[in-house]
Amino acid sequence: MERENDFFDLKDIFRAIWEEKIIFSTIVAFFAISSVFYALSIPNVYQSKAILAPSDSENQDMLMSRYRGLSSLAGINLPVEEVSKSVEGIERFRSFDFFKTLVDSSFQKQDIIATKGWDPKTNNLYYDPNLYNSVSKEWVREVRFPKTQIPSDQEAFEIFQESFSIFLDDDSGFITLKLNHHSPYIAKNWLDEAISSLNELMRNEDKKRAQKSLDYLNYQISDTNLTEIKQVLSLLIQKQIETLTLIETNEEYVFKIIDSPIIPERKISPSRPVICILITFVGLIIATIYSFYRYTRKLKKY
Predict the structure, then answer these.
(1) pLDDT recorded at residue 27
(2) Is 37 within 8 Å of 272 (Cβ atoms)?
(3) Do 86 and 175 form a contact (C-beta atoms < 8 A)?
């Protein structure tokens, strides 16, 4: 039996599947069962989210800018804020320097790099034994240069960036932070720590800067005999004291929390049904192609 031409239609495909139904069913079943095992082997990932807004210290910067004209009359240059604190804060969230202040104090490198799952019953993390020994608490991984057995801060930072994201809504000005982790508790705690640490870091920096300006203004007022200059300096000193007071009393110095991070109850990934469907579909295609190939080979023999 010879085929009149090399073209085929859907009837040929269905006929091939029917003729090779055992092979076809075996391949599809193999992919379907494998997809289930594969999907179950992927650990859950949870996402904690926080929504922030610029704090009132932004308004304080605007008020202080009004007094820089007075300081110039007195021959004194007060520091100028070229960017808002919220914009600076967003960039600091993304910076390697800020990450270094958190790693190994609040963030543990093994929790960033070596985790492969989380036990909800015991609230314990599973670690990859090829990377980290959780019993001896030692790194056992084998790596090549430039990596080292104990991960560097740079390596940890690169991996951390994959799970941490920041989004600024230009219309509302709200900032959304998202952090993914195998443990929902760590996702929430790390986000809390990042927000509070950034507020505290920038508050301490501005406190030192304001105190330095105040000391300088006090020195200048004691070093001049001109009444007009003394009046200007007194006003500047008063505003600087107000600034220090606001810094001391405002814990949410850069960002105030609109929606606090929570411990997520539901995973964000993986989508196991989708994984199973996609893998089974690939198996279906492969089974169809292979069945049709066997079927056409048999036809050529006749």
Answers:
(1) 95
(2) no
(3) yes
User: Which distant-in-sequence residues (6+ apart) come within 8 Å of 1 by Cβ?
Assistant: 299, 302
Contact 146, 224 (CB under 8 A): no
Q: For the chain, where are the alpha helices, taking DSSP H only?
A: 10-19, 21-41, 57-66, 68-73, 85-94, 96-102, 109-113, 153-161, 184-222, 227-249, 272-301
Per-residue pLDDT tens for 76-98? Answer: 555 555 567 888 999 999 999 99
Helix (H) or strand (E) holding 58: helix 57-66
With contact defined as beta carbons under 8 Å apart, do 236 and 70 qualify?
Answer: yes
Q: Looking at this protein, which amino acid is placed at residue 291?
A: S
Q: Are 244 and 214 in contact (CB under 8 A)?
A: yes
Can you tell me whether residue 47 is helix, strand or coil?
strand
Q: What are the angstrom distances between the C-alpha of 83 and each of 57, 62, 247?
A: 13, 11, 18
What is the value of pTM for the model shown?
0.79
- Which amino acid is present at 274? V
User: Strand 255-259 relative to strand 46-54: parallel, antiparallel, unpaired?
Assistant: antiparallel
DSSP 137: T
C-alpha closest to that of 162 among 138, 179, 143: 179
Structure tokens at 102: 């958190």
Residue at token pair 């040929």: 12
